[in-house]
Amino acid sequence: MGASRAVYEWVVAAIRSGRLRPGDPLREEQLARQLRCSRTPVREALQRLRAEGYLERGRRRGLAVSEPTQEELVDLCVVRETLEGLAARLAARGITTSEVYFLEELCEDMERALQQGDLHALARLNAEFHAVIWRAARNRYLARELQRIWLLITRQPVTTLSYPGRAREALAEHRALLDAIRCGDADRAEQLARQHMARAQMIRMRMAAGHTLPQPGVPVPAVGHPEP
């Protein structure tokens, strides 16, 4: 079971970092050689990844990293909007002073990245901002599900922050959300988080429809290492 989990986490990390992109094939024998293990744990891990939606049957024999359809992407974004709102509500009720300070620092770092035009750093900081809110919600099941949904959505190698004007707009939304959480305004925090996600979803759909050129893989927020 330990070997199977290690293979699972390796593949998830590869998808998360962009080393594995939608459509990339995954072969049992090749992975077993690369990870220096038998094919049994590789097979178990790949079956689990397929059941969770990360992999699908490839064009040829074997499995490949799946790419959600537009309909699936909309469904995922609707669920994420609701759960991000819940996370913000819970965070407003129990966030610590150190977590508020960390969010403030992240906003400042995002401002600097924006001024420097560093899209990769901006995407990474954006991911961490949301991860802090997940942790501040103090609900590991919620954090785990949000991490899973974020990974499924960001299999598409494009960040909405690359859309003209979105980076500046998203930063303003982050600051407003931070203010609501800092003040303990749970209703306002939930509303702002949901609006933030709805805006991102609209832009993602617009980019997909316009066939926007892909950017480097979007980092997935880390919430520690909860049991998957």
Describe the 3D structure.
The longest helix has 25 residues, at 70-94. The chain is 68% helix and 4% strand. The two termini are 13 Å apart. The chain has helices at 2-17, 28-35, 39-51, 70-94, 97-116, 119-136, 140-153, 166-182, 186-209; strands spanning 25-26, 55-57, 63-65. By secondary structure, it is mainly alpha-helical. It folds into 2 domains: 2-65, Winged helix-like DNA-binding domain superfamily/Winged helix DNA-binding domain (Arc Repressor Mutant, subunit A, Orthogonal Bundle); 70-209, GntR ligand-binding domain-like (Four Helix Bundle (Hemerythrin (Met), subunit A)), CATH 1.20.120.530. The protein has a 3-stranded antiparallel sheet. Helix 4 (70-94) runs antiparallel to helix 7, helix 5 packs antiparallel against helix 8 (166-182) and helix 8 packs antiparallel against helix 9 (186-209). Strand 2 and strand 3 form a beta hairpin. It is globular, with a radius of gyration of 18 Å.
In CATH terms, the superfamily of the largest domain is GntR ligand-binding domain-like
Label the CATH architecture of the largest domain: Up-down Bundle
How many angstroms does the end-to-end distance come to? 13 Å
- What overall geometry do the principal axes of the alpha carbons give? globular
Strand order of the largest sheet: 1-3-2
Look at the structure and give the CATH class of the largest domain: Mainly Alpha
Describe the protein's topology.
Blueprint: H1 2-17, E1 25-26, H2 28-35, H3 39-51, E2 55-57, E3 63-65, H4 70-94, H5 97-116, H6 119-136, H7 140-153, H8 166-182, H9 186-209
Antiparallel strand pairs: 1-3, 2-3
